[in-house]
Amino acid sequence: MESLPGECTVRFSLDWDESFPNGFYLSAFDENHVFVRKWTVFSIGGGSIQIKEYPLPWNDEVYLEKSYREIRELMDAEGISLLDYVYSHEPDLKEYLYTIMDAMIDCVERGISTEGMLPGRLHMNRTAHRLYEQSTESLLENNDLRLMAYAFAAGEENAAGHSCVTAPTLGACGVMSALVYYCAKDRNMDRSRLCDALAIGGVFGNLIKSNATISGAVGGCQAEVGTAVSMAAASAAYLMGLDIDRIEYAAEIAMEHNLGLTCDPVMGYVMIPCIERNAMGVLRAFDAATLSRYMSNIRKHLVSFDMVVETMKQTGMQIPIELKETAEGGLAKEYLHES
Ligand code: SF4
Known about the structure:
The protein contains 13 helices and three strands, in the order βββααααααααααααα. It is mainly alpha-helical and about 350 residues long. The protein has two domains: about 1-55, no CATH class; about 70-339, 2-methylcitrate dehydratase PrpD. Strand 1 (about 25-30) and strand 2 form a beta hairpin. Helix 9 (about 220-240) runs antiparallel to helix 10 (about 245-255).
């Protein structure tokens, strides 16, 4: 373990020569100002970092299966369910998922009961509370409006710098949080079952993180909100009682229809289009699960989850840098131009 001594001087510099935009150099010098070591640290999404000089194969020791196909083959060979697969690899996970679920619920709860202005130069007012109020008045759109209000609540809490759950990232934290809150509070679903739904969604998020990316700076918003929708679609499909093929199909549909989604946060704040996009995302997650349920009665789906993840990765590489979290293209550019 290496650490800095109790007291040291920290100097900041804006130099950055890497092609990957999200990161920083960490250079250490001893008391005689002699260079000791440099780390090039990349933020790769969802709170994870990668150190260029010390590459670590993340995740290897927990899950050996590298694709959904491999997981499925193992499940078939051993006659186990997807939940058996997860909990046999991570016996303590369920307990942790209760903490995650409660953090999601707290986050949404705070978000729908708070009003006022969000920090930053966009001078945006919070809207989750008013959206939620209107959902209690509108019978027709009641469920959709509530789900969107919950996604706004989590997104606004993130924009305010408060505690949220990365699922898979903070920018996309509203999708899974809204699903969990809605199922817990509006549908009174069993807490244990909701944790299992989180575990199911996590399998798909993990595969995307391992085989493509969950970073908007690497793959655009398809990697962030796209992944969140895919995870939530799998969770929703599980909660709807769908079989494993339908769960995979729901996750696949959700990602397929977010392919190419760019990342162009206005003024660099995770607010526009991010917060609203989370609200649309949670609706799309339920839609994907519904479509999976009924399409599977008609024909076998031709595009696998693994296939769509690889497509997302390839598409992300082709998205120009201006549309990958740099706020130099898309809405970010147009907004500055118009305002
Ligand atoms: S637009 Fe960019 S910053 Fe906003 S949620 Fe999507 S990936 Fe994150």
